[in-house]
Design brief:
Layout (H helix, E strand, L loop, with lengths): L32 H8 L2 H7 L4 H6 L14 H19 L8 H24 L12 H9 L5 H12 L2 H11 L5 H17 L2 H8 L5 H35 L9 H12 L5 H31 L8 H12 L9 H18 L12 E4 L10 E4 L11 E4 L7 H10 L4 H9 L4 H10 L3 H6 L2 H17 L7 H25 L5 H10 L5 H13 L6 H20 L5 H9 L6 H17 L1
Parallel strand pairs: 1-3
Antiparallel strand pairs: 2-3
The structure holds zinc ion.
The site of zinc ion (ZN) has 6 residues, from helix 20.
């Protein structure tokens, strides 16, 4: 389950702007480098950046560039490269040591982002091989469904944007020189959904709107032309896929070692390499399985009675977990159970001195509004950086419209022990609490380019930390379920590296997930699909978690009795969603300078 606030970030391939972005305003360098940095990389930077990234702008609630949609052709790529290089040069003029912590972390994140975007364009070149990187649906859906302006104004924006759809897909098709079959098929499938967006509902909305007759006719004509362009794209891709199936040599979806390491460096921003993390995950997997086997042996008679435990340890653990998973709430009680858990977790966190919560802003739990359903069963709905005063909600979706069989399988997974762990991860003290702390040092750069490994790592770390504090009673059942859950993060890392670097087959991947990590067949095949279409993201959970955990253990060693868990948590989160590597450096510097006083 992922947070809505960090799934919305679209691909870097968003079509870029028509003309070169405004030149950087000459900055009358104030003598304080912090003031100068804030002036140069605050609104000035984003006003130059958004015209190149209108899709990202729309997704974070910045609509001034919403009518832009341009073919990602050679000219656009040149404009983009000039912009990225110029901003990188400007960033590098600030010596990191001259900046305060907030600006220094912003500088590091922005530099990484700009370098990564340039690398995507010039070396990864996914614009040549990923047909699913081109899709106009998301931004149009947001413009049509978000109430940021009166409907007529939004329809006019939609109309101007639509006029550019045919040129956009023509350039996309021209760029695709050697696509993978997996991304080609994904694009075909997703564009069927894109076609639905431009169907009868939209036409009715236009016809019954208050636009003038001329505006309505023009808009309807543009919808028609956009539909034709999308159909053409699907037909081109389907023919291409058929050719590749017959006699082509399609590009492999596997990134290979060199690209994977590079992408890992940009996306994860940790001190070690991808290979280091993979080795570490293998060790961790062994440790978890050993612990699970011990717990399973201990719990066997309680849940399995006289049945003899199987010889194979995976079977032993798997059968016990399956039996324990029958202990879960009824489908009708799902929402009230989650509603009860939230205040209970808040009380636990406060009474055990784990971290300060914002008492003035308790998390509001609500049933997921209809227009947001269908993505996940529980998620945080946090305001974006351009709408910061809005409330944060924890959305819980009733299981009613899931169908009895799917609801049962869901509840099996999120049984009596697992459900609290999920809520710890998503809300307290996981993602929601991290977000509160991040918002205390408001930074547009961090909220838009925040480090995913820090965000996911904190949530995964907080699960273990809660159990260590005694939450759940320290029972063997609780720890066994935690091990299964934690094994998922570890296995994600192993899977991603094995598939993209080591060439792991589908059969071996399914065996790893279903047999050795106790996942359902449905979950395992979904994960196989995800690993073919994405890379590195699956490694972020274990990477962030192990970095935070190692750092804590190191400080405990060094400080002995003086180590305070609550102070550690609060300081760690005070830097916002910066990479753990950098936070560690800043915390150690601070410690050093305090010691020297
Ligand atoms: Zn998460």
């Amino acid at each position: 389950m992922r947070l809505s606030r960090h799934v919305a970030v679209p691909l870097l391939l968003a079509a870029a702007g028509l003309c070169a972005p405004a030149q950087a305003a000459p900055v009358h360098a104030p003598s304080d480098p912090n003031q100068a940095f804030a002036a140069e990389f605050g609104d000035r930077f984003f006003e130059a950046y958004w015209p190149l990234r209108p899709d990202l702008a729309i997704s974070v609630g910045y609509y001034n560039v919403a009518d832009r949609l341009l073919p990602f052709d050679a000219r656009e790529r040149a404009v983009e490269a000039v912009f990225l290089k110029r901003e990188l040069a400007a960033l590098k003029r600030y010596a990191p040591e001259s900046l305060n912590d907030a600006n220094r972390t912003d500088q590091a994140l922005l530099r990484n982002e700009l370098e990564s975007e340039l690398w995507h364009q010039q070396e990864l070149r996914d614009w040549q091989w990923d047909p699913s990187g081109y899709n106009v649906a998301n931004s149009f859906a947001l413009l049509l469904n978000t109430d940021y302006a009166p409907l007529e104004q939004r329809l006019r924006t939609v109309s101007r944007r639509l006029a550019r759809v045919p040129a956009y897909y023509a350039a996309a098709w021209a760029n695709l020189s050697h696509p993978t079959r997996e991304h080609t098929q994904l694009a075909i499938q997703q564009h069927q959904g894109t076609l639905d967006l431009f169907g009868a509902d939209l036409e009715n909305q236009v016809v019954s709107s208050a636009l003038s007759m001329d505006e309505r006719l023009l808009l309807l004509k543009r919808i028609d032309a956009a539909r034709a362009a999308i159909k053409g794209y699907i037909e081109h891709l389907a023919a291409l896929d058929a050719r590749l199936a017959k006699n082509g040599k399609p590009r492999s979806f596997r990134l290979g070692r060199a690209l994977y390491e590079k992408k890992f460096g940009y996306d994860i921003q940790s001190a070690g390499s991808a290979e280091d993390l993979y080795q570490r995950a293998l060790t961790e997997k062994g440790r978890l399985l050993e612990r699970m086997d011990g717990l399973a042996t201990q719990l066997w008679p309680k849940y399995m009675g006289d049945a003899a435990p199987p010889q194979d340890r995976f079977d032993r653990i798997g059968q016990l977990i399956a039996r324990m998973s029958d202990h879960h709430s009824a489908a009708a009680d799902f929402v009230p159970t989650v509603e009860k858990l939230i205040p209970q977790l808040e009380d636990w966190v406060s009474s055990h001195d784990l971290i300060d919560l914002d008492k003035d802003k308790p998390l509001q739990v609500r049933v997921t509004p209809a227009y947001e359903r269908g993505v996940s069963v529980a998620s945080i709905d946090a305001p974006g950086p351009y709408n910061a005063q809005a409330s944060t909600y924890f959305n819980v979706t009733p299981l009613d419209d899931m169908g009895a069989e799917r609801a049962e399988s869901f509840l099996h997974e999120y049984n009596d022990w697992m459900l609290p762990i999920l809520i710890i991860h998503e809300a307290i003290p996981g993602h929601y609490v991290q977000l509160i702390y991040a918002n205390r040092s408001p930074s547009r750069i961090k909220s838009i380019f925040g480090n995913g490994a820090m965000i996911e790592g904190w949530a995964v770390y907080s699960e273990r930390m809660m159990l260590e504090s005694g939450y759940g009673g320290g029972t063997p059942e609780m720890w066994l379920m935690w091990c299964k859950w934690n094994l998922r993060s570890v296995t994600n890392t192993i899977l991603d590296y094995s598939v993209h670097v080591l060439g792991m087959s589908r059969d071996d991947a399914i065996k790893l997930l279903a047999h050795e990590a106790f996942q359902s067949q449905e979950e395992a095949s979904g994960k196989w699909r995800r690993v073919q279409l994405s890379s590195v993201q699956l490694a972020s959970y274990f990477s962030g978690y192990s970095q935070i955990y190692d750092f804590r253990e190191q400080l405990k060693q060094e400080q002995g009795e003086a180590f305070k868990l609550k102070a550690f948590h609060e300081q760690l989160l005070s830097y916002g969603s910066a990479p753990v590597k950098l936070i560690r450096e800043l915390m150690q510097n601070k410690k050093g300078s305090e010691d020297a006083r």
